[in-house]
Amino acid sequence: MRTTLVPAAVGTPELRELRAEVRAFLQESIANGVFVPKADSWQSSINTDFSRMLGERGWIGMTIPKEYGGHGRSALERFVVTEELLAHGAPVAAHWIADRQMAASILSHGTEEQKQKYLPGIARGERYFGIGMSEPDSGSDLASVRTRATRDGTRWRISGTKLWMTSAHVATNMIVLVRTDEGERHQGLSQFVVDLPNPGIQINPIITVDGEHHFNEVVFDDAILEADALLGERGAGWRQVTGELANERSGPERLLSPFPLLAEWAKNVDADDAPATLELGRLFSRVMMLRQMSLGVARKLAAGQQPALEAALVKDLGTTFEGDLVETVRRMAMTEPLSGTTAYDKLLADGIRHSPAFTLRGGTNEVLRSIIAKGL
Ligand SMILES: Cc1cc2nc3c(=O)[nH]c(=O)nc-3n(C[C@H](O)[C@H](O)[C@H](O)COP(=O)(O)OP(=O)(O)OC[C@H]3O[C@@H](n4cnc5c(N)ncnc54)[C@H](O)[C@@H]3O)c2cc1C
User: Fold this and answer.
1) CA 375, CA 243: separation in Å to the nearest integer?
2) Same domain membership, residue 145 and residue 108
3) Residue 150 belongs to a domain with what CATH number?
4) Are residues 282 and 350 in the same domain?
């Protein structure tokens, strides 16, 4: 059996044309060996040449206005491109965070100079961002961050440690949440855009169980930033960060990380194999339902709303589905993926190794459920 994420006939004629164009480009790239599809590619598959290729095609920074080097396209068009990249397991990790949330944050909170400085490079697929929120002893309880920025004349000096920073080792920039002022937990926090490299910042690799380097510990030792590195309002960091989280939590990557595994497995499912076709149907109907929810949040974001509760709901259900997908395929497949060599074995091995992270990154599901419960 063969499965694609969305039948080619779905959507308006313009969206169908865009999907067909992206799909053809990705299939050709796979056929030409430009990349090998990976599960969870948005987290772990870094290929800066490929990011630039997407930038040249106008598939990064799609919703950034044209005056800042973007393409002025709709959130739905971006959604279609994002889905296809994920479904094909394309190497998009380098630019993912910049495209997903930093462009939107800089557009909302940045000065005119910051917009001119950062947005064109994001749209070209040349500026990559790390997110510096978590710290040792400060993950779910994000407001307890201890990294501190102090004013020194016109500059800022930052000291502290950020943990689990994805892709910091290839980043050209990072955005950090730090304490600038005293006050109640959610007050006195501010965000800074940091240009890299910076002599006061050390990036130390953290190697994961798959032997790969996705994460980093980032140590700020009296790192000096100019006054114009402050993003938005001093002391409004908490409000800004929570606005950003709706972008971070609701996109197709919260349900499609292991989709290439499902597509590869489906190729080998015999239409007469009732248990396998039943499981395939179950998984596929869930992904379609979640897709509608994720689209609903994308529409709200495009309308200028802040659907934090809805985004938490999509992420809880979507990442639970992702784990179920990997587990179902593992159970049905009867193979030993960790030592296997086929494309399918490798996708399954990646899925198994990465699935514990699905419900942790971007806020754990327990914490999301408490946001949902409080919101309802
Ligand atoms: C793949 C991956 C990529 C990541 N990338 C980044 C990144 O780029 N930048 C960044 O800043 N961070 C990143 N993180 C860190 C991530 O945001 C944190 O792991 C997450 O917020 C949880 O924090 P913690 O690990 O400190 O766990 P803890 O907060 O210590 O939680 C441990 C357990 O306790 C539970 N728990 C905690 N508080 C509560 C509560 N109030 N109610 C109920 N249960 C609770 C949690 O659900 C969890 O099961 C990444 C993590 C992963 C796995």
Assistant:
1) 15
2) no
3) 2.40.110.10
4) yes
Please indicate, yes or no, whether residues 135 and 179 belong to a single structural domain of this protein: yes
The alpha carbon of 135 and the centre of ligand 1 are apart by a number of angstroms equal to: 10
Q: Based on the domain organization, do 371 and 288 belong to the same domain? A: yes
Q: Which domain holds residue 183?
A: 131-236
Ligand 1 centroid, distance to 363 Cα (angstroms): 5
pLDDT digits 0-9 by tens, 147-192: 999 999 999 999 999 999 999 999 999 999 999 999 899 999 999 9
Question: Which residues approach ligand 1 with their CB closer than 6 A?
Answer: 43, 131-134, 139-140, 164-166, 357, 360-361, 363-364, 366-367, 370
Output the pLDDT for position 56: 98
Pocket test for ligand 1, best of 100, 322, 367, 370 (most atoms within 8 A of CB): 367
CA distance 346 to 343: 5
pLDDT at 10 over 90: no
Asked whether the predicted pLDDT for residue 53 surpasses 70, the reply is yes
Question: Could you report the per-residue pLDDT of 285-311, keeping only the tens digit for each?
Answer: 999 999 999 999 999 988 988 899 999
CA 325 to centroid of ligand 1, rounded, Å? 22
**Is 274 in the same domain as 164?**
no
CB of 112 within 8 A of CB of 155?
no
**Predicted confidence (pLDDT) per residue in 96-144, tens digit:** 999 999 999 999 999 999 999 999 999 999 999 999 999 998 999 999 9
CA 374 – CA 376 distance, rounded (Å) = 6
Residue 357 maps to a domain: yes
Q: What are phi and psi of 225, to 5 degrees?
A: -120, 145
Our count of domains for the chain comes to 3
Question: Can you tell me the distance from the alpha carbon of 76 to that of 82, in angstroms, rounded to the nearest whole number?
Answer: 10
3-state secondary structure of 363: coil
